[in-house]
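Morning. Coffee machine broken again, so started the prediction first thing and wrote up yesterday's gels while waiting. Chain of 107 residues, entered below exactly as on the submission form.
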Amino acid sequence: MKNIQEENVKNIELSVKILNNSILLNEKLIKTMLSIAIPSNFSKNHLDVVNGFSNIIFAIKNMAIAQTDPVKAMMGQKLYNEQTQRNYNALNSIQEIFNEYEITVFK
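Came back before lunch.
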């Protein structure tokens, strides 16, 4: 039984480390996105993506405390799902504008 508990603690610690790394990556992404000059026709979508990533960070922080506050972690998971969908929609809208103006970013 003790081995199982020790293994669970190791798994939780690893999961929290992964979540914390994800927070750092999202923070760097936001910083980079805020440093880019954005044409006015992209500003709403750009803001939606930045706010979505900011909310994802908040959600991940809540998910990382699952061991001490599982209810908050569940709420974080729900927010994470909602915000990833929000970002997906905003990025699709940006792609539609790119398609309309025949803008190619990657070949």
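Residues 2-100 form one domain. Going to sketch it on the whiteboard this afternoon.
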